[in-house]
Amino acid sequence: MNARNTIVLAVDQSDLTEALGCTSEVVESMQDNGVLESQGQLWEIGPARDYLRDAAWADHHWH
């Protein structure tokens, strides 16, 4: 499985922020924009990591 197909189990928003290393506001924004999608409690975070990597290059969101 490559990094693009990374799936995590996230019970709540804090699990996603920890897995992605970003704020809950950024997680919500990615959900609203369709970058981060779930199947129940399983989340495909590969596209979100790509988004965050690109944002880091533009000096946004990463902490």
Automatic annotation (TrEMBL):
It comes from the Bacteria. This is Uncharacterized protein.
